[in-house]
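Worked example 3. Consider a protein that binds magnesium ion.
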Amino acid sequence: EVVLPFGLQSEVDAHLHAFLDQKKMMIPEMPRPNSSESLATDYGNYEKPETVMQNSLARERVLRPRSLQLRSKQQQWVDSPEGQKMVEFRKTLPAYKEKDALLKAISENQVIVVSGETGCGKTTQLPQYILESEIEAARGATCSIICTQPRRISAISVSERVAAERGEQIGESVGYKVRLEGMRGRDTRLLFCTTGVLLRRLLVDRSLKGVTHVVVDEIHERGMNEDFLLIVLKELLPRRPDLKLILMSATLNAELFSSYFGGAPAMHIPGFTYPVRAHFLEDLLETTGYRLTAYNQIDDYGEEKTWKMQKQAQFKKRKSQISSAVEDALEAADFKGYNFRTRDSMSCWSPDSIGFNLIENVLCHIVKGERPGAVLVFMTGWDDINSLKNQLEAHPLLGDLNKVLLLACHGSMASSEQRLIFDRPPEGVRKIVLATNMAETSITINDVVFVVDCGKAKETSYDALNNTPCLLPSWISKAAARQRRGRAGRVMPGECYHLYPRCVYDAFADYQQPELLRTPLQSLCLQIKSLRLGSISEFLSRALQPPEALSVQNAVEYLKIIGALDDNENLTALGKNLSMLPVEPKLGKMLILGAIFNCLDPVMTVVAGLSVRDPFLMPFDKKDLAESAKSKFSGRDCSDHLTLIRAYNGWKEAERTQSGYEYCWKNFLSAQTLKAMDSMRKQFFFLLKEASLIDNIEGCSKLSYDDHLIRAIICAGLFPGICSVVNKEKSITLKTMEDGQVLLYSSSVNGNVPRIPFPWLVFNEKIKVNSVFLRDSTAVSDSVLLLFGDKVSSGGFDGHLKMLGGYLEFFMKPTIAYTYLSLKRELDELIQNK
Ligand code: CDP
Ligand code: MG
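Given these inputs, the predicted complex is written out as structure tokens:
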């Protein structure tokens, strides 16, 4: 049995933030004179690390340039006791047995594909093996290995782990570079970076001069950036015959990648997992008498809490729901009846849906059982996890803190919480972790013996025909289900409860759809243009699995409408600026306008909120209270975005007097989300500065602003996301051009008002479920639409909008196509003369 030192991981996590902050202070990224030059300098420096050193005293202090004596330094470390321990640990990883075979394959082929179970040592070991063998072959001074990661956090933590394994400081032979942050020195030969960073380097250095190895990690995720990078690299390889490409994947679908690269050899690292017994829904019923427990438990639960009559009646109803749902599930052909049915918020299970009770029952079964071991529950998303956690905390057994340690695990949790997930709980306490599919491959909890798999994951999809993105929990793939199951067999034989019948599993797709096929392509198309990769549609047709022509056409059309591309598909000045900002083009446009109109502070709040997530919490049992708390911020604005700004500013104010948490509690706000927004705002600020769109903090930090102007900027960004408002006697009818009548989420402040005193709503997102629903919206007037909505796409809306469209062209088209500066002047004048 191999016990892996997970303490190390959590220690790294614990210090990560403090460490990063410290580094940021010590190593400012170079000041940039202007945007186009900045990229060149950045990556130019990469080629000549010495210049970096000369230019930056601060950097020198931290990184202490040394001559290239990697080999002797390494020997000293290996001879020390800690070094010995590390060497021994590294030998226990499954990748170690394949080391020679892997290196041989790399030396004999230009491209190889490596697959292996999560945790077998692909990311931390393979790039290191390459580095070591290069040093061995006296090429240490000239090699340059780049390993890409899909996420910032993994690029940073992996590079730190590898540096620690080599007994070095980060920035010696191993470094990292993510957007806005980096640690590398003149000796850095192995660089972990995000996929985006490598793509941006290609912007100024098409042939990756000086790079000897590119390792693309986590390709099984089929992220959009990775698929994109593969197209570029495929084209580059013939021009750079000496460049080695290594693709790494956690699952066994190597053939696809191997044939994309003309039959590149695929290697597999055999893992060491224990067998995991799979239980499907029908097994649960047959072998554990689940059905009986399901009934009894609900009654027990009801009595124990001495619920009121009304509640009891509710439980009775739920009980019959369960029985019919399970029945349905067994009939199985139509699996909709057993459902993770959605109530008003489309994207999550309804909190009192049977899915939750099923999970509750399975967890009781495990906790009452004899076998020790932690439980990992795969849920669809953050909101589900929270609702389920609330439900379980109220349960007599599962909520008992002496018996159960209940933890949540999702992308944006605090690092202190993160540590608990990896720690072993006290004797006699069962650890239950509720996680998103992030726990499938990105993180590993070693003591997991039981896995509960709801079979779904929240996934974006894209309906090209209606040009509508959808975000729905959808069935996972067979590969993902296998991966989830495998998580139970790290330390001993495990059990996996799949909460769906086997025949549903059989109907799963083999692999998840690649992101390129299920997301709107606007940002990607912008990037293709800024990388000067030629015709967008021609370029994308060379992808591993090319997207639909219609999706591409929609994206190009959209970019033309917002003025990022001209009629000939060339990048405009606005387009260039937008491609510098790591947010969707529409949000980038808001930031640019915010900078121009000197009201960046509130605009950054809106953009941060839209790119992180809604900080307003809507707990199902306190929905009314939460809604009324929210409406306190909204006043009569009819704008979710202005509401968000007020809530955020209030929190900032409360933070100043140390009462941030109290404020959040009182107002049903997520402190965590607000903090994430805060750090995102800081990033925006630096980026805009980097792109020379602002020169100092003045005008950005002031809290007073004009609501009408913000409304206008929101309109400019969200256009053509617009619907018309008709106030009727008892209701409000909303219509968009493409969908006809649409509805609002009840969480929107506009969902609960008797009338909306403006003729238009601009919205950020529409999502198709049964009907089309609009998320956050802001009401705008004719004149705002006239001035700030861009030209209306051909085809027209209705007569009114067509007329507006005519005006819009008249006012806006030449300026937008040209540059935003003249727009500022023109609009400034208009506003001044109002
Ligand atoms: O990439 P892959 O999933 O194959 O594995 P890896 O990330 O290279 O990790 C290999 C092993 O190193 C893991 O099983 C962990 O035990 C250990 N590790 C660690 O202790 N701390 C880290 N920050 C990363 C990995
Ligand atoms: Mg990995």
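Take a moment to read the result before moving on. Residues 309-331 form the longest helix (23 residues). Residues 122-123, 217 surround magnesium ion (ligand 2) (CB under 6 Å).
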